[in-house]
Amino acid sequence: MTSLECDMIEIKKFLAVSIILLFLGVAVAPSINQSVVKASTNDNLVEVTTQACGIQGYRDSTVTLTREQYQNLEEYFVEFRTRLNQTSTREEAVPLFKEAVMELDKYGLLPKGMSVERVQKLVIGGYQKLSRFLKSINLGYYQTLSDDVNLLCLIAGETSVTYVSKFPLCSFFTIVYHIVQSEYNPLLLFLYLCFYIRNSLPIQLGSVIFLGGSGLFSWCDPGPASGWIHTIGLNGKKSWNGYVYGNLPAYHIFLDFILNGYYPGVLRFTGIHTGHDEDHFYLGSALWVKVSTEPLESHNLRSSEIVKMMPKEK
């Protein structure tokens, strides 16, 4: 085969990959909530939308708050964070999570048709039994987890540059990445396979939260997420403040038409998600949380890397 023929094959592969990426961008974009709060025609009013993640049959709830009401809600979030920082166990955090649900209910910010008790169960119920089981059998591996990760945890956070998606291919890409790169550990792979197999069942198993992103062009680079995240789970209490990126071992996913890539940081999230402008508040449980203060180049979905992974033509 001549050099020209080889070059033509590589070009064809590159074009094929480009088309796939374009398709993914179109397919994913409708499922991403890029603005959960709509600007009101009245500057004194704010329209806030709350989503239920990890459960089917409930629609988003949109309410209109006055600026004063929203400011009071933000002040509560600050107080909630301060009190949450003083907890060290799940048992101490659960009452605060339940109280936060009741506070959101005062503003009508619970998903339509869901009672306070139902939302509280959704927020704190995920993965609790499995976490207790793993601790009871003294598996031991979770004791060596790094400080940037937590598993089977309660999670609360308020960050910017944040997107919540139910797109299943992110889950698929994550497990494929683990297998190909051989960077998985038995515990994570076991947990992930259990929940991935359940994908075939007619139930919603949670969402992916993307934190921060990077763009093909500097003028449209989303940059890191900014804010705070608090978790209590199998790896104890883990918190992050300031600028962060999602750090799950998967290529970041393109979520818009200008090919900005966003980093998955929270996997299998069940709970509620609300926000204002660029700020997003989320409260619930997660299978896997992994966050970094720096973006990882290994996450970038480069077409040249995909071409290298494709089988060579004989």
Secondary-structure class = alpha+beta
| Cα-based radius of gyration, to the nearest Å | 21 Å
**Tally of separate domains:** 1
Helix content: 25-40%
Number of strands: 11
* Helical run tally: 8
Query: What is the helix/strand order?
Result: HEEEHHHHEEHHEEEEEEH
Oligomer: single chain
Q: Report the portion of residues in β strands.
A: 25-35%
Q: Major beta sheet, specifics?
A: 11 strands, antiparallel
Unreliable runs: 7-41, 178-184, 197-204, 298-314
Cα distance, first to last residue? 9 Å
Mean pLDDT: 72
Which shape, going by the Cα principal axes? globular
Task: Sum this structure up briefly.
The chain is an alpha+beta fold and 314 residues long. It has helices at 3-28, 67-85, 90-106, 116-125, 128-136, 169-181, 186-197, 303-309; strands at residues 37-39, 45-53, 61-66, 149-159, 162-165, 207-214, 225-233, 236-246, 253-254, 261-276, 279-292. A hairpin with a 2-residue loop joins β10 (261-276) and β11 (279-292).
Write a structural description.
- This protein is an alpha+beta fold.
- The chain has one domain (23-309).
- Helix content is 36%, strand content 30%.
- The protein has 8 helices and 11 strands.
- It has helices spanning 3-28, 67-85, 90-106, 116-125, 128-136, 169-181, 186-197, 303-309, and strands at residues 37-39, 45-53, 61-66, 149-159, 162-165, 207-214, 225-233, 236-246, 253-254, 261-276, 279-292.
- Strands 1, 2, 3, 4, 5, 6, 7, 8, 9, 10 and 11 form an 11-stranded antiparallel β-sheet that branches.
- α2 packs antiparallel against α3 (90-106).
- Mean pLDDT is 72; it is low at 7-41, 178-184, 197-204 and 298-314.
